[in-house]
């Protein structure tokens, strides 16, 4: 029987009113599975930034510090980029197994002209290119927590929101009920999926803010010491306030406001899908992208990052407040897809004169030119060498004879090894022969770190790692990037991992753990049985007292 609309109105009014009695929600029974997992990724939130700012947090990031705090979490692999990092969070496997080895890799043998592959595209779709991808989870070779829950009970909802498609896709995986990301001024989803009313409302609200413009942010008093201009390359950073000119969508996207829009959509989706109050547990993944954009544009130690982290704290708090008002029993994990490193110009002033920018000669085009000059070998079609920057995976053209390819590889290896900024070069053969690393990730060799990023199908013929403190941006630009991540060094690998659930006995564990430990830990909390060997990580006991959240 169909209920009259007034009935629905009354029922929804009751549903909205019910949480009023939940102003001080009761602690959950720690043995019962939570009804909702809130998985938060803060893009580029290094363990170093967390350590620097944690005492200033007052809202969401303060509450999480009452839970289980792993101050030295590791994205333990070498290629510390957004897509591989997000893929570890809820799959529990290294990039070597998820297949997400980088944001972009190359398939020199693919039929399309664009040999570059974007991690969350469908390269078989003729409409897809690495620059204009048809967004898809198809390249992810692993299951996410949400995927696993939906197999057990299809009533579980698997929802993800971010400003970046790759973040939302890698956290929700293959069976997303709702996945949204920011695209040209509004929230978009997979092709053919119409944005829900919640997504449309969040987009309208963001559009209104963009249309009118807004004044800059006032930094909290504790940001004052960082409010210092540093010259970079004909411009300076360090004192920005993010004023928003009317109509400046790019400015909105590169400010704390995009995180507010992301939180706004997350909150709306909680209501729209009634997350955490269904018959089966739900997963809400929220990846905040502004810390990354601001880290790239302004570096880590200016007033810009200080403003950003203060604003992020508020947005995370807003999501928790909303769930509390609705009386949801939820467990939270917060981590990051990778860390980051400041601009060498500021590092040089702040006691790290060794920091430097990478040499443009490491770019694939430059290397190819030199190799053609010394060997006479050129690619009959396409490029001789493919790579996505000044380090990482290098691929040799598939249009060469085996002898030519071997010669080019020898030459390329020698050139990279001879370069003063290169720390290590490994061939695919060497990486394939290396066992998957285990033990404390802080003690792994560079070869072991690179092994955790290696997928025989997708990785390059060679992997080159830069020396510590070499920043792979040779030409910094205003409004572009001045600083970055991606290296095999701990400033890019170390991230905080925080778990919280109401009533849990919190603790601080400084020993290294890994982001691949998150999924097994949450699976145990949810009493989810996962076949032996499907995770690379291990379950972390999230109760600081006598209870053991891993022991069932
Ligand atoms: Zn990232």
What does this structure look like?
The protein is α/β, with parallel strands linked by helices and 552 residues long. It is 33% helix and 16% strand. It contains 19 helices and 20 strands. It has helices spanning 5-17, 47-53, 60-64, 82-91, 95-98, 145-152, 165-172, 197-212, 249-253, 257-272, 290-298, 303-325, 344-349, 364-375, 402-418, 428-433, 446-452, 490-493, 518-525, and strands at residues 36-42, 68-74, 104-106, 116-118, 158-162, 178-183, 186-188, 230-231, 236-237, 282-288, 330-335, 356-357, 385-387, 392-396, 422-427, 462-466, 470-471, 494-501, 507-509, 513-514. The strands form 5 sheets. Strands 1, 2, 5, 6, 7, 10, 11, 18, 19 and 20 form a 10-stranded mixed β-sheet that branches. A 4-stranded antiparallel β-sheet has the order 13-14-16-15, sandwiched between helices. α8 packs antiparallel against α10. The longest helix is centred in the middle third of the chain and has 23 residues, at 303-325. Residues 1-23 have low confidence and may be disordered. Residues 43-44, 82, 292, 337-338 line the site of zinc ion (ZN). The site of zinc ion has 6 residues, from loops.
Topology:
Elements: H1 5-17, E1 36-42, H2 47-53, H3 60-64, E2 68-74, H4 82-91, H5 95-98, E3 104-106, E4 116-118, H6 145-152, E5 158-162, H7 165-172, E6 178-183, E7 186-188, H8 197-212, E8 230-231, E9 236-237, H9 249-253, H10 257-272, E10 282-288, H11 290-298, H12 303-325, E11 330-335, H13 344-349, E12 356-357, H14 364-375, E13 385-387, E14 392-396, H15 402-418, E15 422-427, H16 428-433, H17 446-452, E16 462-466, E17 470-471, H18 490-493, E18 494-501, E19 507-509, E20 513-514, H19 518-525
Helix pairs in contact: 4-7, 8-10, 10-12, 11-12, 14-15
Zinc ion binds next to loops.
């Amino acid at each position: 029987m169909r209920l009259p609309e007034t009935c629905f109105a009354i029922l929804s009014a009751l549903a909205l009113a019910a949480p009023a009695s939940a102003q001080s929600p009761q602690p959950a029974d720690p043995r019962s599975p939570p009804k909702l997992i809130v998985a938060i990724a803060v893009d580029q939130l290094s363990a170093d930034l967390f350590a620097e700012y944690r005492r200033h947090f007052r809202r969401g990031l303060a509450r999480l510090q009452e839970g289980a705090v792993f101050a030295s979490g590791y994205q333990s692999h070498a290629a510390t980029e957004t897509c591989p990092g997000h893929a570890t969070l809820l799959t529990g496997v290294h990039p070597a197994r998820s297949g997400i080895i980088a944001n972009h890799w190359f398939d020199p043998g693919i039929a399309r002209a664009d040999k570059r592959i974007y991690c969350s595209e469908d390269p078989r779709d003729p409409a897809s290119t690495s620059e204009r991808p048809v967004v898809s989870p198809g390249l992810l070779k692993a299951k996410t927590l949400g995927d696993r829950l939906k197999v057990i009970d299809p009533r579980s909802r698997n929802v993800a929101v971010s400003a970046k498609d790759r973040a939302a896709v890698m956290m929700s995986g293959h069976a997303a009920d709702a996945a949204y990301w920011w695209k040209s001024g509004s929230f978009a989803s997979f092709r053919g999926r119409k944005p829900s009313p919640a997504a449309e409302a969040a987009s309208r609200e963001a559009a209104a803010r963009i249309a009118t413009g807004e004044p800059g942010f006032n930094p909290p008093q504790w940001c004052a010491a960082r409010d210092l201009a540093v010259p970079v390359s004909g411009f300076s950073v360090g004192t920005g306030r993010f004023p928003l000119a009317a109509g400046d969508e790019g400015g909105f996207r590169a400010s704390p406001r995009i995180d507010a829009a992301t939180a706004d959509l997350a909150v709306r989706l909680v209501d729209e899908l009634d997350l955490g109050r269904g018959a089966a547990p739900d997963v809400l993944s929220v990846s905040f992208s502004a810390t990354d954009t601001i880290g790239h544009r302004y570096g880590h130690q200016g007033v810009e990052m200080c403003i950003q982290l203060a604003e992020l704290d508020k947005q995370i708090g807003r999501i928790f407040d909303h769930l509390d008002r609705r009386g949801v029993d939820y467990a939270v994990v917060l981590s990051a897809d990778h860390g980051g490193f400041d601009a060498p110009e500021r590092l040089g002033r702040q006691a790290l004169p060794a920091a430097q920018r990478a040499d443009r000669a490491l770019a694939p085009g430059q290397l190819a030119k030199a190799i053609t000059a010394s060997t006479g070998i050129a690619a009959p079609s396409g490029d001789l060498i493919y790579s996505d920057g000044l380090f990482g995976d290098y691929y040799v053209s598939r249009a060469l004879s085996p002898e030519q390819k071997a010669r080019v590889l020898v030459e390329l290896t020698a050139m990279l090894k001879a370069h003063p900024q290169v720390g290590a070069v490994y061939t695919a053969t060497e990486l394939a022969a290396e066992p998957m690393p285990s033990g404390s990730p802080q003690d792994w060799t560079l070869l072991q770190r690179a092994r955790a990023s290696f997928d025989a199908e997708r990785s390059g013929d060679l992997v080159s790692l830069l020396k510590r403190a070499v920043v792979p941006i040779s030409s910094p630009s205003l409004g572009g990037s001045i600083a970055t991540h991606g290296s095999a060094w701990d400033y890019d690998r170390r991230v905080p991992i925080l778990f919280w659930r109401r009533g849990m006995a919190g603790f601080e564990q400084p020993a290294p753990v890994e982001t691949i430990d998150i999924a097994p830990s949450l699976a145990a909390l949810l009493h989810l049985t996962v076949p032996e060997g499907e995770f690379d990580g291990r379950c972390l006991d999230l109760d600081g007292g006598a209870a053991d959240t891993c022991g069932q």
